[in-house]
Design brief:
The protein is mostly helical. It is built from eight helices and no strands. Helix 1 crosses helix 7, helix 2 packs parallel to helix 5 and helix 5 crosses helix 6. The longest helix has 14 residues.
Length: 195
Amino acid sequence: MKTFSDIENHWAEPTISELVKRQIIHFEPSLLFYPEQKITTEQFVSWLVNSCHARISNQWTYALEKGLAEDYDFVHREKPIERRQAARMVHDTLRIERKEKNEDDWAAAKELNDLYSCRTCVQHISQVYVKGIIDPVKPTHFDVTGPLTHAEAAVILLRMIDSTKRKPRMKRENTAVAALTPDQATALFEKHKTA
């Protein structure tokens, strides 16, 4: 199978080739892939929608109507996508399009020192991290506002659609759940002010 000339021997070549084969990324012999170039929000949304429905002509309308993208994404469509945006879009696509349930155990994500730097992104980042879809930039740093390259985006999308390509991170915590009466809960809050 022919593929982009600028990905030969690139670390993401097998992934990119697989996405071309699945018609998520469209190959044209005259074009280059630019694997290390930052991917724009528009290009990411295009690949994301293609991963679910290859024949949709107006991808932005579909993504916005389905809740896979937001107005913020549309306004910033020509800018490089931020990692937190990609996490949100992938998580929403998993839930909405693929009907994939959230992981109850996302304790491993608490190792990310910047997890709470975006309060509205915590669940999205946690889910794509523990499911092994988006890797952190450093072992304990997700880099929420950092960009993605074309190659990194390709890996993320293949992991999203093919769970066998994921690298799950589960950290089982032994926690017991106990039912409390309102009086017991009040007593707990009075005894432990940080509860």
